[in-house]
Write a structure and sequence with these properties.
The protein has 349 residues and is an alpha/beta fold. It folds into two domains: 5-149, Rossmann fold, CATH 3.40.50.1970; 154-343, Dehydroquinate synthase-like, alpha domain, CATH 1.20.1090.10. Helix content is 53%, strand content 11%. It is built from 15 helices and eight strands. The protein has helices at 15-28, 43-50, 64-76, 88-101, 146-149, 154-165, 167-179, 187-201, 215-235, 244-256, 262-276, 281-291, 304-317, 324-328, 332-343, and strands at residues 5-9, 34-38, 54-56, 81-86, 105-109, 121-125, 131-135, 141-145. The strands form two sheets. It has a six-stranded parallel beta sheet, with helices on both faces. Strand 6 (121-125) and strand 7 (131-135) form a beta hairpin. Helix 1 crosses helix 2 (43-50), helix 8 runs antiparallel to helix 9 and helix 10 (244-256) packs across helix 11 (262-276). The radius of gyration is 20 Å and the shape is globular. It starts with a strand and ends in a 6-residue tail after the last helix.
């Protein structure tokens, strides 16, 4: 699978200029009748591109069924490419829709909150609300508008860092599954995942609010997120960047409808993995606190009992995937003991 082309617009700090440049780049890659899938926040950036074709804004909670139906609609529209402008939800819906339509996808993130920007995986709920990680198509092109990204909320930057903090743990889970004969690792993908974490590790000792709007940092974060996505493209699986910590996040989504951005929930899930691997979860929690990521259940409005349910539910979110959680094979009493070891007694949660 080929690597996506990366275009970065930083010639001015005016998003209107970026909108003009995006439309030109869409034409340069050979798309003359684009179908634009845009969030509300992405409409200004998408304005010039949308003028050349059709556009839609997916509803909140857009499901797999919606995405597939959208793909069928796009195919009937005679569009010759899909341009997705928005956050993770919009990009994931567009990945599935483009796959259904059989068309090229251009991804235009309006925030850097996750590493799915160029991955071949779409995370969308089914009709029951259960989050699913589905095979889709990666974008042919990724367009990064710095004037847009500098306006994104600090929480989205924290989430992007949180998603990348999962990579070392996901790699350990991948190795664990390989040792059990349940998965095969890929060295190039492994190296890309590890390098993407290395790229942001130096930012994990400060509150993200100190640098979240710095164009130089945003370019650095974007490169790391794209590299992490590339590790998934090369390996043909999300394993290089998704392990038990992602199962925790998906379980929170399934049980409670989500309590934070995906990357923030993933960072919280990392605490469980760190503890199960016998590492210093206290130090890890302190690192999350420094960055501004959730390090305690109450920050996600979860009780002690809620976290126990999340841990027990997490293997059900990715049947067939073996991680440290499946290795631990906790029952309710074991999960409760783990939660109290990490966060203290019921009063602590």
């Amino acid at each position: 699978m080929d690597s996506p082309q990366i275009f970065v617009y930083e010639a001015s700090d005016d998003e209107s200029d970026a909108s003009v440049d995006l439309a030109a780049q869409v034409g340069e890659v050979g798309i003359q009748a684009p179908f634009v899938v845009s969030s509300m926040h992405g409409q200004r950036l998408a304005l010039r591109t949308a003028a050349a074709g059709a556009t839609v804004t997916p509803p909140s909670g857009a499901t797999k069924h919606y995405s597939i139906e959208l793909g069928a609609h796009i195919r009937r529209s005679r569009a010759d490419g899909v341009v997705a402008v928005g956050g993770g939800r919009v990009l994931d819906v567009a990945k599935l829709a483009a796959a259904r339509a059989g068309l090229t996808l251009i991804a235009v993130p309006t925030q850097l909150s996750h590493d799915g920007i160029c991955s071949p995986v779409a995370v969308v709920p089914d009709d029951s609300g259960m989050t699913q990680s589905l095979g889709a198509i990666p974008p042919r092109t990724v367009y990064l508008s710095i004037p847009t990204l500098v306006k994104a909320p600090v929480a989205s930057v924290r989430a992007g860092l949180g998603d990348l903090m999962a990579n070392p743990l996901a790699l350990r889970d991948w190795a664990l599954a390989s040792e059990r004969g349940l998965a095969s690792t890929d060295q190039r993908a492994w190296d890309l995942s590890a390098q993407s974490f290395d790229m942001i590790q130096g930012y994990l000792s400060r509150d993200a609010s100190e640098f979240a709007h710095d164009p130089k940092f945003l370019r650095h974060l974007a490169d790391a997120l794209v590299m992490s996505g590339m590790s998934m493209i090369i390996s043909g699986t999300s394993r290089p960047a998704s392990g038990a910590e992602h199962e925790i996040s998906h379980a929170i989504d399934a049980l409670f409808g989500g309590r934070a951005l995906h990357g923030a929930q993933v960072a919280f899930g990392c605490i469980v993995s760190v503890a199960l691997y016998g590492e210093d979860f206290g130090a890890f929690r302190r690192q999350l606190a420094l960055v501004g990521l959730p390090h305690h259940p109450r920050e996600l409005r979860l009780t002690e009992g809620d976290v126990v349910r999340v841990i027990l539910e997490s293997p059900e979110t990715r049947p067939g995937r073996f991680t440290i959680i499946e290795e631990a094979n906790l029952d309710e009493a074991g999960a409760l003991k783990l939660v109290r070891r990490i966060w203290g007694s019921a009063n602590g949660c």
